[in-house]
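Usage example:
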Amino acid sequence: PYLVPVVILIVGPATWVEKFPEARGTRQSPVDIVTSRASSGGSAPPLVWRYSVNHPRSVVNPGYCWRVDENGYDSELRGGPLGSDVYKLQQWHCHWGSVNGEGSEHTVDGRAFSGELHLVHWNTSKYNSFTEAAGQPDGLAVLGVLLMVGSKHDELDKVVRLLPYIQHKGDKVTFSEPLNPANLLPKRIAYWTYPGSLTTPPCTESVTWILFKEPVQVSAEQVRLNLCYYVNGKNV
Ligand SMILES: O=C(O)Cc1ccc(OCc2ccccc2)cc1
Ligand SMILES: [Zn+2]
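Running the assembly step on the lines above writes:
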């Protein structure tokens, strides 16, 4: 019998460990949140945040989904699991799936959501730059917001309506319409938190994850707009 050449093509997360040893770590994200195993918050102080609203922001196509850069404008996230350090919003971005209902990074009791918004903050009490903080175990704090299909999200629409103008990787558009990132968060601010990592290479274990329990609703059209523009950063 002739020998059939067997080529095993390993792509995606399975190959990340080769290039990014951190991906082999013990606090890798995302995870499935097993709600029955979550301990109660105990006496953690309240999580508080304040964001700048009226400043120019840029929406970028980084090659996956989209990212909004805060361009260093003032903001603060403190309290909750963050000890006495003050964190600042660097950027926020989203993760969408290619099939509705399967886009989130985290799952809750095995259930995936249509998408997940990440507001990425860095520890300004201890570090001098985002890049420096991104390499430290207490360097980053990411607020995670689960997205489900429902009514249209007006604040998020300020970004979604710009997507047709950044269809290719590297495209960027700047807008000055007032936008309050706090309006992207759910009404109820109960959350799960755990020490984790970047969910994309270099998978550095530098993220304190804070995932809100209450999903936020976005319209089916908003999901479609995200899906049709961002499947692996290529416009489709
Ligand atoms: O939100 C996430 O998925 C985690 C995450 C957080 C921050 C992040 O920043 C990318 C980055 C990391 C290190 C240096 C420069 C840029 C990339 C991913
Ligand atoms: Zn993310």
